[in-house]
Design brief:
This protein is mainly β. It is built from three helices and 24 strands. The longest helix has 19 residues, at 3-21.
Length: 437
C-alpha cells in the first residue's frame, strides 16, 4: 500500500467514526488559549477537539578549543502539528489524527511522513481501553509521552534522541487500578510492528512486545500535568509518578527500531536474518508549587543471530565483509551500527508566578564497546549540560519563548559536522518559539 493510500485509508476510518457518532447538533465549548477548540453534542455524548502548534527554531553551534571560529547556524520550522481528537461516550469509541506538516521531524522526532498519530480506541470498561493504530509507545522513556509543545527546554534530551522509537503501529492495552483512596497503578501493554511508523513497504523482522507500569502515590496531576514538563499549574500538593518500561523487538532493520529496511542482513541461503533489540528503563516525575523534576534511565542491548553471513548495501548488493579492527567479527560489526548502551537524564526547573522559568538538565550517554553511539560525527559525546530560560505568554501552552545553552563533552576522536577531527568540546545555543491554538 502506498504512503498516500495508507494516509487516505486512515483518514477514511477516522471520518467514518465522526459520521457515526455526530448525528446531532454541535456546540463550541469555552476556548482556552493553547488548549484547542472543543466541540460537543447537545447531549454531551460526542466530543471533538481540534488543536495544533508551530515551533520556529534557531540553533547555533560552536566548536571549542579549535582554530575553527565559525558559528554553524541553522534556521528551520522545527515542528508544525495539526491534531483532531474525538470521543463518542455511548459508543465507547475514541480516536485521534495528528499530522506533521514539516515532513517528518528530526532528532528524537525523526520518524518521517505526514501521519504521526492515527488510532481508534474502544473503552472495554471505565478503566480499561484497547487501541489499534499508530501512536506513541509506552515502551519509550517518560519524556516521549509528553507533547513536544510542552517541553520545558528547547528540545528533547540526548537520551530520547539516542534510544526512542517515538511512535509505532500496533495494538495497545491500558488500564488503571485504584490502590488506596489516592494512589493509582497504571499498567500498559503494546504489541507493535517494531519498525516505527508509516511503514508502507515490506515489514521487516518480527513484532515488538513490551509494556510500562506507572505508580502515582498521591493521585493524578492537575490538567494532564503527568504528560507535561514544567509545573505551570503550580501543584498545591506534591505529585509524583514513578514507572518502568521494557520491550523486546524481534528483528530490527535499522539502528533502534524506529524505521524499516535501512539496515538488512542475510544468512547463507539469502534469507533475511536480523538482530533483536532489547530495551528497558525506569523514570519518575515530581511536581510541587512550580517546581518540577524529571529523571530517566534507559538501557538498550542487541541479540545478534550467529547465522548471519551477509549484509545488504544501500544499492541492494551484498557483502560478506564484517571486519572490525582487521578481524572478522559479525556480532560486534552489527552492534557497531546499532544504538546500544545506556544513558540517564535528569532535569528540573522552577516556574515563577510571573511565568518565567529557569530550567537545567544533565544527560549522560555510555555506549557499549561496539555501538553507533561511538560514531565520531553524530555521537561520541558523553556529557551534556543544559541551562535554559523560558517565558510563557499565558498560564498554559498557548505561546512561549525558550532559550537554552548546552555544553557538550566530545570524546577523543570526535568530528565536526563536516567530518573533520575536533580537539575540544562543543557549545550549542537554541531559541524556539511555540504558538498553539
Amino acid at each position: 500500500m502506498s504512503h498516500l493510500k495508507k494516509t487516505l485509508f486512515l483518514l477514511f476510518l477516522l471520518l467514518s467514526v465522526v459520521e457515526f457518532s455526530s448525528a446531532q447538533e454541535i456546540i463550541l465549548g469555552k476556548y482556552r488559549f493553547g488548549e484547542g477548540l472543543y466541540f460537543t453534542g447537545k447531549d454531551d455524548n460526542y466530543q471533538i477537539k481540534v488543536s495544533g502548534y508551530l515551533q520556529p527554531n534557531v540553533e547555533s553551534k560552536k566548536y571549542l578549543d579549535t582554530d575553527d571560529a565559525t558559528l554553524y547556524n541553522r534556521f528551520r520550522m522545527r515542528r508544525a502539528r495539526f491534531e483532531i481528537t474525538g470521543e463518542a461516550k455511548k459508543e465507547k469509541i475514541s480516536y485521534q489524527l495528528e499530522l506533521d506538516l514539516t515532513g517528518g521531524g528530526e532528532g528524537a522526532d525523526a520518524i518521517g511522513g505526514l501521519v504521526y498519530d492515527a488510532w481508534i480506541g474502544y473503552n472495554i470498561s471505565k478503566r480499561t481501553k484497547i487501541t489499534f493504530g499508530q501512536k506513541s509507545t509506552p515502551t519509550d522513556n517518560r519524556e516521549l509521552g509528553m507533547s513536544s509543545g510542552t517541553l520545558q527546554l528547547a528540545d528533547r534530551s540526548p537520551v530520547s534522541a539516542a534510544f526512542a522509537s517515538v511512535r509505532e503501529f500496533g495494538l495497545f492495552f491500558e488500564t488503571r487500578y485504584k490502590i488506596t483512596r489516592k494512589s493509582i497503578l497504571l499498567p500498559a501493554l503494546a504489541i507493535t510492528n517494531g519498525d516505527g511508523i508509516n511503514v508502507t513497504d515490506k515489514d521487516h523482522g518480527g513484532l515488538k512486545y513490551g509494556g510500562r507500569i506507572d505508580y502515582l502515590p498521591f493521585g493524578q496531576f492537575s490538567n494532564l500535568g503527568q504528560y507535561r514538563q514544567a509545573d505551570l499549574m503550580r501543584e498545591s500538593t506534591p505529585k509524583f509518578v514513578i514507572g518502568a518500561h521494557y520491550s523486546y523487538n524481534v528483528g530490527i532493520s535499522d539502528r533502534r527500531g524506529s524505521q524499516s529496511g535501512t539496515i538488512l542482513y542475510l544468512d547463507k541461503d539469502n534469507n533475511e536474518l536480523l538482530p533483536d533489540y532489547v530495551k528497558y528503563g525506569v523514570d519518575f516525575l515530581f511536581k510541587y508549587n512550580g517546581f518540577s523534576l524529571l529523571g530517566e534511565y534507559v538501557n538498550a542491548s542487541a541479540r545478534v543471530p550467529g547465522d548471519i553471513t551477509q549484509r545488504v548495501r544501500t544499492d541492494g548488493s551484498t557483502s560478506t565483509n564484517f571486519d572490525v579492527n582487521g578481524l572478522r567479527d559479525v556480532e560486534n560489526y552489527i552492534k557497531g551500527r546499532m544504538m546500544v548502551g545506556e544513558g540517564y537524564n535528569i532535569q528540573g526547573g522552577y516556574v515563577f508566578k510571573n511565568l518565567f522559568s529557569i530550567d537545567a538538565r544533565v544527560s549522560y550517554l555510555k555506549p557499549e564497546s561496539y555501538s553507533f553511539l561511538n560514531n565520531p560525527t553524530f555521537y561520541n559525546r558523553s556529557n551534556y549540560y543544559t541551562l535554559g530560560i523560558s517565558k510563557y505568554i499565558s498560564k498554559g501552552y498557548g505561546a512561549k519563548i525558550q532559550l537554552d545553552c548546552t555544553y557538550i563533552n566530545a570524546k577523543d576522536g570526535s568530528n565536526d559536522l563536516n567530518g573533520n577531527p575536533i580537539k575540544g568540546n562543543e557549545f550549542v545555543t537554541r531559541l524556539v518559539t511555540t504558538i498553539a491554538f
